[in-house]
Amino acid sequence: MADLKLTDVGKTYGGAVEVLKHIDLEIETGELVVFVGPSGCGKSTLLRMIAGLEKITAGTLEIDGQRVNDVPPAQRGIAMVFQSYALYPHMTVRDNMSFALKIAKKSKEEIDESVTRAARMLQLEPYLDRLPKALSGGQRQRVAIGRSIVRDPKVYLFDEPLSNLDAALRVATRIEIAQLKEKMPDRTMIYVTHDQVEAMTLASRIVVLANKGIAQVGTPLELYETPNSEFVAQFIGSPAMNLFPGKITETGERTTVALDGGGTAVSVVPSRPEDKGREVKVGVRPEDFEQTEGDAIYAGRVEITEALGEVTLLYFEATGSDEPIIAKLPGIHREMRGRDVRLGAAPEKVHIFAEGRSLLFRD
Amino acid sequence: MSPILQGILTIIIGVGGCVGYFYLSNAVLDRIIFPARDDDQGRNIALATAVRPWLFLLPAMLALGLYLVYPVVGSFIRSLYNRSGQEFIGLDNYLQMFSEEGFRVALFNNFLWILFVPAAATFFGLLVAQLTDRLSWGSIAKSLIFMPMAISFVGASLIWKFVYANDPDIGIINAIRDYFGADPIDPMQIPFWNNFFIMIIMVWMQTGFAMVILSAALRGIPEETVEAAIIDGANPFQIFFKIKVPQIAGTIVVVWTTITFLTLKIFDIVYTMTGGNFDTEILPSYMMDYMFRDDGRATAVAFVIMLIVTPVMIYNIRQAKREA
C-alpha cells in the first residue's frame, strides 16, 4: 500500500501562474524521499502542498489511502521542519515541543512522556527549560525536529532543514537525521534540498523536479548511473557531466558516435538501425575520464587545474559549448597546466542523449 | 526690516552659529588645549577624542537644562509658596489639595482614564491591525482609522460635541433615541458614565496610533512560526493569542505605556467637552482651574502629574530600548 500518493497534482497561483503540473508520485511507507531541483522549480511548493500550507489546485493527494486535499494540516498526520526552525521564540524548548499536544488536549502525563522521549532521542534534555534564543543553530534545529517527533506523525516533511547551519554542523545534523530515520523505520520522510550531497546520502529515492514537473525518480545511484535526460545527467553529480555534440555512425548493441570536435565515442547504450546519422550528444562524467593514447573522446589543452589532493580537476578551454570541459583524475597530477591531454572513457560510462532524452529511456 | 529678510537672517545666524560653534570649539580643543605635537602627541589625541563627544552634546544639554530641568525645579520651588508667591508655606499646597474633594475626584477620574483609554486603544488597535492584515481594502480602512490622529484634541472634541449633542436633529445618539421614541438626553451630564463618553474621544484618536505600530509589529512576526502553529493544529484564535500576541508583547507594552502618558497629559478634551463640570475633572484640567489664580496650587498639581508620569515613562523607554 502506498502511504502517500500524488495523482496529477498541479498548482497555479491566481489561475494564471502555473508552478507545478501533472505530478504523479507514490511514496511507500518508510521511505525517505528527497525532492531536488534548481531553485524555483517548485520543490518547496510541492512539500507545502503535501503539508497543507498551500492549496492543491489540481489533482489529488492521498495519505494512507485517504484523499486529504481539503483536510487541515494538523489532521493529515504530518509534521514539518522548517529551514528557519520556526520555533516559537517566547516559549521554552519544552513548551515548543508540547504545544501541539496541548492544543490537542492530551493529558499532562502523556505530554510529559512524549516530550521526555523526544528530548532523550535528540539529546535535548539539558535544554528543556531554555528559550530558543539561548540555543545554538544546531540545537534549535534539533528542537524543531523534536517538535515534530512529539506529534508522532506518519509523514515527516523537511524543508531544507540544514541550509541555515554551517558546513560542519550540516554534516553532523545530516547524520543525525539519517540515524533518526533508522530508529523510525515505519515513518515516511520527505525532504527538500538543493544540496546534492544531502540528497545522495539521505535518500532512499530522489525525485528530480524541473520545468514544473518531475524529471526523474529513482534511487541515488540509478539517477547517477542512468539519468533519463541531459537535465538530470547534468544536475546530479558534481562537477556536471560533460556533453559533446556528434553524429551516430554505427548502431547496434554498442553505439559509435563521431563527435563534432573530432573525437570518437563508443557506448554500451544500444541503438536502432534508423538512428544512423542522428544528431546526438554524448555525455561523460568528469570522474569517468581517463588519459589515453588511443581513440580519444576529447583532446585539448589544460587551461586551469585544481589540485584537491584526492583528485585533480582539469579545466579545458571551451570549444563550441558554453561550459568548459572538465576532467577529474584520481590522485595528484603535477604540472598539467598548458599540456595537451587526450581523454577517453570506458563504453559503460558513456551516455547518449538525443533531443535531451537518454537513448536508454525511449519508447 | 521685511519679515523675509528677518527670516533669512535668522537662518544664517542660526546655522552659522552652529557651524561656528563646532568649528571653533574643536579648533580650541585640538590646537590649544590638547595640541597634537611634541612629546605628548599620542596622549593628547586620546584625551581630545575623549572630550570631543561632550563638545557635541553641550548645546543640547544646555537647552535641556534651560527648558526642562530648570522649569521642573522652579515649579517645585514655586509649589512651596503661597498664591502670591511671597510667602513660603512648605507642603501646605499639597496637603490642602489632598484634603479637597475636587482634587480627589480629579485623581479618581484620572485613574479611570489611564485604566480605560490605553487598554481600549491598544485593544482596538491590535484588533484592527490583525483584521486588516490580509484584506485587499485593509490599507484604506487603516487610513480612515488613522485619520483622527491628525485632528487636534480640540477639533476632535468639537466633532464629538455634535455626536453627543442634546438635540435629535444634531446628535446621533439622540437621533437614535428619538427614532425609538425616547426623550433626548445629554450624555455629558450622566454621572460617572460621562467620563467614559469623554474617554471614547481619546480612544477614537489613539486607536490609529496603536494600530500603525502594532500592524508593523505583526508584519514582523516570522511567517514560519504561524505556519508551524497551523501544522501543530492551532486554530486562528490560538494562533493569535498564543503565537502572535506573545511575540509582539514588547511592542504592546510600548504602545500601552505611550498612550498612558499621553492620557495623563490630556487636558483639551475635558476642557472642551465639559470644562471639568459634572464630575469629569481630571488632573490637568484641575491644574488649569488654578493656573493664574493660584500658581502655587497649580504647580503643585503639575508636580503630582509629573510624579505619576515618570515611572510609566521610565518603563516605556526601557521597554522601547529592549525592543530595538
TrEMBL record, chain A:
It comes from the Bacteria. Signal peptide: none annotated. Keywords: ATP-binding, Cell inner membrane, Cell membrane, Membrane, Nucleotide-binding, Transport. One of its GO terms (molecular function) is ATP hydrolysis activity. Pfam families: ABC_tran, OB_MalK. Belongs to the ABC transporter superfamily. This is Alpha-glucoside transport ATP-binding protein AglK. It comes from Salipiger mucosus DSM 16094.
From TrEMBL, chain B:
It is a multi-pass membrane protein. It holds the Pfam family BPD_transp_1. It is found in: Cell membrane. The keyword Thylakoid does not apply. The keyword Glycoprotein does not apply. Belongs to the binding-protein-dependent transport system permease family. This is ABC alpha-glucoside transporter, inner membrane subunit AglF. It comes from Salipiger mucosus DSM 16094.
